[in-house]
Amino acid sequence: MRAVLYYDGQCPLCAREMRHLWRLKSDALSLVDIHSLDLDDPVKQARLQVLHLELEGGEFVTGVDASVGAWRYTRVGWLFAPLRWPLFRPIVDWVYAKWAQRRYEKLYNCQNGVCGPQA
Which of 4, 52, 115, 119 has a beta carbon 3.0–4.6 Å from 108's, enabling a disulfide? Predict the structure, then answer.
Protein backbone atom coordinates (compact mmCIF):
# COMPACT_ATOMS: atom_id res chain seq x y z
CA MET A 1 0.00 0.00 0.00
CA ARG A 2 1.13 3.53 -0.71
CA ALA A 3 0.72 6.68 1.36
CA VAL A 4 -1.91 9.08 0.03
CA LEU A 5 -1.96 12.85 0.50
CA TYR A 6 -5.42 14.39 0.07
CA TYR A 7 -5.34 18.05 -0.95
CA ASP A 8 -7.68 20.81 -2.09
CA GLY A 9 -7.09 21.22 -5.82
CA GLN A 10 -9.21 24.40 -5.91
CA CYS A 11 -6.77 26.18 -3.60
CA PRO A 12 -4.11 27.92 -5.74
CA LEU A 13 -1.40 27.74 -3.08
CA CYS A 14 -2.19 24.08 -2.32
CA ALA A 15 -2.14 23.16 -6.01
CA ARG A 16 1.20 24.92 -6.44
CA GLU A 17 2.76 22.98 -3.57
CA MET A 18 1.38 19.73 -5.00
CA ARG A 19 3.00 20.46 -8.39
CA HIS A 20 6.37 20.79 -6.63
CA LEU A 21 5.76 17.70 -4.53
CA TRP A 22 4.65 15.72 -7.61
CA ARG A 23 7.98 16.42 -9.34
CA LEU A 24 10.05 15.31 -6.33
CA LYS A 25 8.05 12.51 -4.70
CA SER A 26 8.77 8.80 -4.82
CA ASP A 27 6.30 6.26 -6.16
CA ALA A 28 5.38 5.38 -2.56
CA LEU A 29 3.24 8.56 -2.30
CA SER A 30 0.05 9.31 -4.21
CA LEU A 31 -1.45 12.79 -4.44
CA VAL A 32 -5.24 12.95 -4.64
CA ASP A 33 -7.37 16.04 -5.24
CA ILE A 34 -10.30 15.80 -2.83
CA HIS A 35 -12.63 17.15 -5.51
CA SER A 36 -11.98 14.05 -7.64
CA LEU A 37 -13.48 11.79 -4.95
CA ASP A 38 -17.06 10.89 -4.11
CA LEU A 39 -16.97 11.46 -0.34
CA ASP A 40 -19.65 11.94 2.29
CA ASP A 41 -20.02 15.67 2.94
CA PRO A 42 -18.58 15.67 6.50
CA VAL A 43 -15.52 13.68 5.39
CA LYS A 44 -15.02 15.95 2.38
CA GLN A 45 -15.36 19.11 4.47
CA ALA A 46 -12.85 17.83 7.04
CA ARG A 47 -10.33 17.01 4.31
CA LEU A 48 -10.84 20.38 2.64
CA GLN A 49 -10.10 22.21 5.88
CA VAL A 50 -6.64 20.71 6.46
CA LEU A 51 -4.26 18.40 4.65
CA HIS A 52 -4.76 14.70 5.34
CA LEU A 53 -2.05 12.10 4.81
CA GLU A 54 -3.10 8.46 4.93
CA LEU A 55 -0.05 6.46 5.87
CA GLU A 56 0.72 3.05 4.46
CA GLY A 57 -0.82 1.34 7.52
CA GLY A 58 -4.14 3.20 7.16
CA GLU A 59 -3.44 5.75 9.92
CA PHE A 60 -4.16 9.43 9.17
CA VAL A 61 -2.09 12.45 10.13
CA THR A 62 -3.30 15.98 9.44
CA GLY A 63 -2.12 19.56 9.08
CA VAL A 64 1.59 20.23 9.34
CA ASP A 65 2.23 16.58 10.21
CA ALA A 66 0.61 15.61 6.89
CA SER A 67 2.69 18.11 4.92
CA VAL A 68 5.98 17.18 6.60
CA GLY A 69 5.08 13.50 6.27
CA ALA A 70 4.40 13.85 2.56
CA TRP A 71 7.67 15.69 1.95
CA ARG A 72 9.49 12.77 3.62
CA TYR A 73 8.72 10.87 0.40
CA THR A 74 11.15 13.17 -1.42
CA ARG A 75 14.91 13.61 -1.32
CA VAL A 76 14.48 17.03 0.34
CA GLY A 77 12.15 15.91 3.11
CA TRP A 78 14.85 16.46 5.73
CA LEU A 79 14.49 20.21 5.13
CA PHE A 80 11.02 20.11 6.72
CA ALA A 81 12.08 18.26 9.90
CA PRO A 82 12.67 21.47 11.93
CA LEU A 83 8.96 22.29 11.62
CA ARG A 84 8.30 19.43 14.06
CA TRP A 85 11.05 20.25 16.56
CA PRO A 86 9.61 21.00 20.02
CA LEU A 87 10.79 24.62 19.90
CA PHE A 88 9.01 25.40 16.62
CA ARG A 89 6.11 22.91 16.65
CA PRO A 90 3.58 25.00 18.67
CA ILE A 91 4.24 28.12 16.60
CA VAL A 92 4.11 26.30 13.27
CA ASP A 93 0.91 24.47 14.26
CA TRP A 94 -0.74 27.73 15.37
CA VAL A 95 0.21 29.53 12.14
CA TYR A 96 -0.99 26.61 10.01
CA ALA A 97 -4.30 26.37 11.90
CA LYS A 98 -4.99 30.09 11.45
CA TRP A 99 -3.97 30.03 7.78
CA ALA A 100 -5.99 26.87 7.03
CA GLN A 101 -9.11 28.27 8.69
CA ARG A 102 -8.87 31.59 6.85
CA ARG A 103 -8.09 29.89 3.51
CA TYR A 104 -11.06 27.56 3.88
CA GLU A 105 -13.49 30.30 4.90
CA LYS A 106 -12.42 32.63 2.07
CA LEU A 107 -12.23 29.95 -0.64
CA TYR A 108 -15.57 28.37 0.25
CA ASN A 109 -17.41 31.52 1.35
CA CYS A 110 -17.89 30.39 4.95
CA GLN A 111 -19.47 32.61 7.57
CA ASN A 112 -20.45 31.56 11.10
CA GLY A 113 -19.61 27.92 10.29
CA VAL A 114 -21.86 27.77 7.20
CA CYS A 115 -20.27 27.55 3.75
CA GLY A 116 -21.96 28.28 0.46
CA PRO A 117 -21.44 29.26 -3.16
CA GLN A 118 -19.29 32.27 -3.92
CA ALA A 119 -21.29 35.49 -4.28
Answer: 115
DSSP assignment string, 8-33:
-TT-HHHHHHHHHHHHH--TTEEEEE
pTM of the model: 0.90
Provide DSSP, 27-52.
TTEEEEEGGGS---HHHHHHHHHS-E
Cα–Cα distance measured from residue 66 to residue 85, given in angstroms and rounded to the nearest whole number? 15
The answer for residues whose C-beta is within 8 angstroms of residue 15's C-beta and 6 or more apart is 7, 8, 9
- In this structure, the chain runs to a length of 119
Band the pLDDT of 109: cuts 50, 70, 90: confident
Distances (CA, A) of 50 to 1, 5, 27, 60, 109: 23, 11, 23, 12, 16
